[in-house]
Amino acid sequence: MNEKQKMRTRKLVLAAMFACLAFVLNTCVYFPSMAPFQHFVNVLAAVFLGPWYGCASAFLCGVLRMLSGRTIQAVAGAICGPVLGGWIYRKTRNLYLVFVGEVIGTGVCGAMLSYPLMKWFYGLDAQSPFYYIPFYTPSAVVGAAMGVAVLLILKRSGALQKLLAQLNGGETHEA
Predict the structure, then answer these.
(1) Least C-beta-crowded within 10 Å: which of 3, 27, 60, 87?
(2) Which residues make Cβ contacts (< 8 Å) with residue 139, sequence separation at least 6?
(3) How confident is the model over 115-139, as pLDDT tens digits?
(4) Per DSSP, what are the bridge partners of residue 31?
(5) Considering only CA atoms, which of 65, 68, 69 is closest in space to residue 78?
């Protein structure tokens, strides 16, 4: 197996682990109509995996949450945050901007994506594509803040650089 395949395998395994972590945390620590641990894990996935593997992780967790009784909002609300946060982190290497990407990606984009899906799949007409924004944003803020806090602790200890270098096959990135 060449180095590129090993790196891809590491990222796939970590994406699955992040999806499982988010699912378990969201199942065990329940807040009605909120999933802050999804956003917590999305921030970690955005930094460690990047936008596309982070999106895959969020999608997998959302599907698991749907299978356990949640609506399609579990998927729609989860996938935009790690894409935007991961893309911003890839361009800037700024942990605080990952927070912004997660909040805007989930709190605005994911909320607006949920509107047509809820209308189409469940027949719910909230009368406005902006309807879900006040419900998604607080959860995204709380979860993303927790994720950034963990990343800052890892950065301060020097572990973040080591983990990123190990995950990326020796490449170091300024975090």
Answers:
(1) 3
(2) 31, 34, 35, 36, 38, 39, 106
(3) 988 888 888 887 888 988 998 999 9
(4) 34
(5) 65
Q: How far is Cα 159 from Cα 71, in angstroms, rounded to an integer?
A: 37
Distance of CA 37 to the CA centre of its chain: 9
> Which residues, other chains included, contact 108 with Cβ-Cβ below 8 Å and sequence gap of 6+?
133, 136, 137
pLDDT per residue as tens digits for the range 11-39: 999 999 999 999 999 888 777 767 889 99
pTM value is: 0.91
Provide DSSP, 25-44.
HHHHS-BTTB-HHHHHHHHH
The full length of the chain comes to 175
